[in-house]
Design goal:
- There is one protein chain.
- By secondary structure, the protein is of the alpha/beta class.
- The protein folds into 2 domains: 276 residues, no CATH class; 53 residues, no CATH class.
- Helix content is 22%, strand content 38%.
- The chain is built from 9 helices and 20 strands.
- The protein has a 10-stranded mixed sheet. Strands 3, 4, 6, 7, 9, 11, 13, 15, 17 and 19 form a 10-stranded mixed sheet that branches.
- β1 and β2 form a beta hairpin.
- The chain is globular.
- The two termini are 40 Å apart.
Length: 436
């Protein structure tokens, strides 16, 4: 069966748990996936990536085995929870089982963290109005695929006027061998609520020699008026993964949201992060980072949709490439006709460490009124040789100088990462730099 013919004839057993409305929506999404053709290669957002590489095989829902490293990650996170460095931990083992632990304080405050299918049954008034509202069959073929086949999805609810000072940390393991997983996350933050969510994707085969692993993820986030939400996505899957992730957030008046997408792993990574500023005074900031080496390919897209006036947004997306790695970044700012008095800025900076790397940057503006302040910038180039010369004049060898310059290039983004995770991310980057 060729990729263009791939369909899901029947929802497998185990994916129809939950209330009837959820089963019905899953089936509708299955039908939508079957009806939609693959995105056309060369079309918008598919100019640099072959969509056929994200088509799963016929065993898309077959059980997979957890990665050997997951036990250590799980132990470390539960240790941080006990030491009160984290507010809650969720470990998703390849969509087969999920372990959820949270502090007593969260339970007393009315915070809800549950498997999504259970939350759909026990908290229907919270889940049904939000699930599939931002990412559904109209979004695209692969988004419909996730909607039909997600396993062990996670639901996070923060009530009105609730502040969670410590991060909630989720780990989604992709298993081993040519695994295929479909993680989904629904976050609902009430009015004047505050929280930090760390969403970590790990695991997968170490190389593609025996077939690429597949990960199709979807994240929907709703932030109420005057809320303050930080969402950090760390993609550090193994080198044999083809990773596809769509994240959409909608923030209401006065809400502040910081999105931090960090793409370090996988063989092929395609990510789409967007925020809809849906109320006056809403503010969104995206600080992204992609670091590729060997033959890694990154394809990132960001969106700020100003649907209301007097809203502000800022995008700062950095890319570092070594060896034969490639990157494509497309950033869209959309400002509606009625959204006057908006301020928006986006910047994409690409650092190429050696010949053979390639970076494409495509800034896009869709501005439907003149009462705005909107700017963008992009750079692509190697390390400034004068910076290297300056450090060498002070007794620093070339390799160390290069690593220091790259570290400085990434420092602003890393400083935004929560403390306990910052060292892990910095360690991954140091390992990558030392291997160059």
């Amino acid at each position: 069966m060729t990729p263009l013919e791939y369909t899901i004839d029947n929802l497998p057993e185990g994916l129809t748990e939950g209330p009837q409305w959820l089963s019905d929506k899953r089936r509708q999404l299955r039908l939508s996936f079957n009806d939609k053709p693959l995105p056309r290669r060369g079309a918008h957002l598919w100019r640099y990536t072959d969509p056929g590489k994200f088509v799963p095989n016929s065993s898309a829902t077959a059980p997979v085995t957890a990665s050997p490293s997951l036990a250590q990650i799980e132990s470390e996170l539960f240790g941080l929870l006990e030491k009160k460095h984290l507010a809650a931990v969720v470990v998703d083992k390849c969509g087969q089982t999920a372990t959820i632990r949270m502090s007593d304080e969260l339970g007393k405050a009315g915070v809800v963290i549950l498997p999504l299918e259970k939350a759909a049954q026990s908290h229907t008034p919270l889940v049904e109005p939000h699930l599939y509202q931002l990412i559904n069959s109209e979004f695209g073929k692969f988004e419909a695929l996730n909607g039909a086949l997600w396993q062990s999805g996670v639901f996070v609810y923060i009530p009105d006027k609730t502040t969670i000072s410590l991060p909630i940390h989720l780990v989604r393991d992709a298993g081993t061998a040519a695994s295929q997983v479909f993680p989904r996350l629904l976050i609902v933050a009430g009015k004047n609520a505050e929280a930090t969510i760390i969403d970590e994707y790990t695991g997968g085969p170490s190389d593609i020699s025996s077939g690429a692993g597949m990960s199709h993820g979807a994240v929907e986030l709703f932030a109420g008026a005057d809320s303050r939400v930080r969402y950090l996505c760390l993609q550090r899957q193994a080198g044999g993964m083809n990773s596809y992730l769509t994240c959409r957030a909608r923030i209401d008046s006065g809400a502040q949201m910081v999105t931090i997408p960090l793409a370090l792993g996988a063989n092929l990574s395609k990510q789409n992060f967007g925020v809809i500023l849906n109320g006056k005074g809403a503010d969104s900031r995206i600080f992204g980072l992609a670091f590729g080496s060997q033959y890694q390919q990154f394809d990132n897209h960001t969106l700020h949709h100003h649907a209301a006036g007097s809203t502000t947004s800022n995008i700062d997306f950095k890319v570092v490439l070594a060896d034969k790695a490639t990157s494509a970044y497309t950033g869209l700012i959309r400002i509606d006709h009625s959204a006057k008095g908006c301020q928006a800025y986006q910047e994409n900076r690409n650092l190429l460490l050696n010949p053979g790397t390639r970076a494409e940057t495509i800034p896009e503006l869709e501005i439907l009124n003149e009462d705005v302040s909107c700017t963008h910038g992009a750079t692509v180039g190697p390390i400034d040789p004068m910076q290297v010369f300056y450090l060498q004049c002070r007794g620093i060898d070339y390799d160390t100088a290069e690593r220091l310059i790259v570290a400085g290039f990434l420092e602003k983004t890393l400083q935004i990462v929560p403390g306990d995770l910052r060292e892990r991310v910095s360690s991954l980057i140091r390992t990558r730099l030392e291997a160059m």
